[in-house]
């Protein structure tokens, strides 16, 4: 009789855990820095004498430049290493966040937010590939889920420090705290190693000088386009809930305290969902897990708007389940995207498609508000979430990214493990 297999976590070395810690902290602090500005838009609008709508474009600005960071810092990561690119990205977005606190007018703040977006996207591209290539393939769904949970943790951290810091130092103090991620680079420099998968490709000198341009070739453009479509639909699915749900709850009679509590519970649902998605993905497969849980999320989305008046406890449970499924399953997307690219252009491919698709997150409040004027805010959130969830299921269910490999798969073996 063969000996029982050891638990998955005992099959990981210390270096595997260092890779997770460095990448996870990068994502946590990325989420922390990104969410900061959403708490102080009113203060910024007042100080710089602009409308709240104009101040809201600062959020869109961060989305608008993310594709640049994904494309070019991702290319840097493909050519010179995941760790080096990750250090550069963290330094870029942390110092740019600090400079936001020194902004002298609205347009200087806008420029600094554009730079923040570039750095954040670069960290996503480099950090995701570093972790996924470092961990054994059989547990990479867990790695992906753990990684994305950092973003939710960053949002919870921002919520925790917002009140005491703004009360003591004003809105600028919140951005000064944003320099903290720079300290992470010390740990990355000395505690995290380059993944062997990338080093092997680099030793063979396979990486193009600017891998982003390879994505525009006839071989890779169809793959990148299909994955971009998936990520656009994904952000269009999740961001109406993230950006418009607090406003909807207030419109139905919940005060600010109750709304904050409900959204905190919902965020916990996302956090636990990210963790659970990794275990499910390793058990039944990445693609199957994505399809099943996305379909299940539609049930909870419909339920949430049906129980709005049923009491805060019932609504809290429903919101928890919405984010546990709808957001939680997106923890598998870094793994799903990375599987479609060779190591020599994986960082730029993953970074570009994910962050270009994230533009939908910036647009969601706009088209959500427009649709709300016709059918009401609650119905608008539900319709947008359901429509784009079905779009995600269609892309993954029909396996469009893998089909798009077509000629690429025929000319050269490509790692696709769904």
Automatic annotation (TrEMBL):
The chain crosses the membrane at residues 21-41, 53-73, 85-104, 110-132, 144-163, 169-190, 220-242, 257-277, 289-307, 313-333, 354-375, 381-400. It is a multi-pass membrane protein. GO terms for molecular function: carboxylic acid transmembrane transporter activity. PROSITE patterns: MFS. Its main location: membrane. It comes from the Bacteria. This is MFS transporter. It comes from Nonomuraea cypriaca.
């Amino acid at each position: 009789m063969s000996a029982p297999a050891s638990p998955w976590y005992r099959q990981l070395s210390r270096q595997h855990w260092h890779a997770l810690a460095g990448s996870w902290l990068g994502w946590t602090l990325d989420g922390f820095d990104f969410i900061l500005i959403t708490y102080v838009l009113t203060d910024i609008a007042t100080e710089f004498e602009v409308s709240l709508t104009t101040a809201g474009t600062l959020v869109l600005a961060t989305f608008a430049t993310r594709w640049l960071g994904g494309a070019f810092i991702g290319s840097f990561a493909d050519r010179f290493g995941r760790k080096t690119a990750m250090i550069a990205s963290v330094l870029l977005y942390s110092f740019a966040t600090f400079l936001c606190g020194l902004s002298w007018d609205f347009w200087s703040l806008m420029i600094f937010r554009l730079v923040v977006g570039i750095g954040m996207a670069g960290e996503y591209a480099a950090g995701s590939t570093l972790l996924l290539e470092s961990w054994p393939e059989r547990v990479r769904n867990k790695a992906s889920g753990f990684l994305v949970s950092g973003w939710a943790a960053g949002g919870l951290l921002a919520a925790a420090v917002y009140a005491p810091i703004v009360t003591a130092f004003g809105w600028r103090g919140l951005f000064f705290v944003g320099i903290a991620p720079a300290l992470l680079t010390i740990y990355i420099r000395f505690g995290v190693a380059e993944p062997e998968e990338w080093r092997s490709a680099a030793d063979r000198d396979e990486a193009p000088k600017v891998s982003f341009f390879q994505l525009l070739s006839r071989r890779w453009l169809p793959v990148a386009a299909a994955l971009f479509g998936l990520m656009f639909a994904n952000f269009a699915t999740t961001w109406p809930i993230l950006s418009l749900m607090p406003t909807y709850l207030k419109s139905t009679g919940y005060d600010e305290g109750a709304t904050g509590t409900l959204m905190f519970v919902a965020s916990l649902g996302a956090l636990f969902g990210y963790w659970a998605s990794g275990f499910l993905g390793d058990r039944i497969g990445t693609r199957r897990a994505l399809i099943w849980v996305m379909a299940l999320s539609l049930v909870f989305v419909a339920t949430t708007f049906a129980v709005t008046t049923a009491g805060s406890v019932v609504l809290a449970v429903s919101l928890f389940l919405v984010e546990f499924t709808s957001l939680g399953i997106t923890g598998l997307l870094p793994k799903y995207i990375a599987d479609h690219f060779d190591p020599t252009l994986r960082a730029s491919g993953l970074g570009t498609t994910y962050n270009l698709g994230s533009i939908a997150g910036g647009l969601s409040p706009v088209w959500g508000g427009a649709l709300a004027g016709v059918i009401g805010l609650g119905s608008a959130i539900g319709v947008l979430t359901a429509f784009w969830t079905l779009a995600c299921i269609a892309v993954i269910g029909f396996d469009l990214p893998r089909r798009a490999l077509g000629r690429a798969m025929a000319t050269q073996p490509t790692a696709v493990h769904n």
